[in-house]
Amino acid sequence: MRIVILCGGESTERDVSLASGRSVARALLEREHEVVLIDPAAVEPVLAGPLRPGDAVDTVAVGKEPPSLSEQRQLRRRMHTALTGGPVMELLRDAELVFLALHGGWGEDGHVQALLEMAGVRFTGAGSAVCAAAWHKGRAQAVLGAAGVPVADRVLWRPGAGGDAVPQDVRRLVEAGPVVAKPVADGSSVSVHRVDSLPELARVAAEMRAGDAELLVEPFLPGREFTVGVLGGQALPVVEIELTTPVFDYTAKYQPEAVGEVCPARIPADFASRLQELAVRAHRALGFGSGTYSRADFRNDAGGTPMCLEVNALPGLTAASLLPRAATGAGWDYPDLVQRIVDLAMRP
Fold it and tell me: Is 235 in contact with 304 (CB distance < 8 Å)?
């Protein structure tokens, strides 16, 4: 097949996405596809291609810090131009399939999917409405809770919108114990903070106010952390994330040896089945269909009950990412995983 891979983009997960795109390209070439690798936010969007089986793909490292807010604005302008006309859109229309290796921002909140839907372009993963539903953690958790998936208590807060005072419901959570504060719509655990006091929360809020970010504040869950991938309706083996830091943040995810990942997780079979059942339920509750894939993240509370933190519509596909680790636990190699994602997207 002729497949265009979209990667890079304008989000805080840009570097992760560039690494995912190259990994996907190597896998597709191994499976005899023709590939064009495109970063719609780059000055020169076509990174490589057309590539044919046997061609080499260079590697790229994930940076220690995500792009700054000013860099993101510039990247977003270029990305908008590339995806609303011109040679990039022509390449997308000419492809038999567009493989979305974008993470975060417009790539995961439904913007890119909506543009491709309007252009009549077939692509991997969920559609625009599902991506938008999963991307906003506050709204997604409300849907999951209504569907019987356990979620933690949470409060949404836009610092600065109502003055400097911390709302009473946020104060209540902080005073009850440590909390986690994070952007309500972002990925790769960017800007995730464990907060132990109101002064500390004020400092985090001051940082977020510069970007006009809405915060999700929820109790810090002290238990073990797990993630479960779902392809179509099939749950993959459970991965346990063994942390050396209080939270699974950007640095822990993408810097070597910062965290341990165990698959299959060393947990009782009935607990593993429970996590897989919850992941499939979350997948379906948010509208993910049989031709899509997702990854649900869980953390146990003090009593050992797993709480769903979020559902990722376009989880990372780097060599160090969690979905490929789960695929390995299922007995698939990396090209198997990528081909399965392609096959899901090509269903009638």
Answer: no
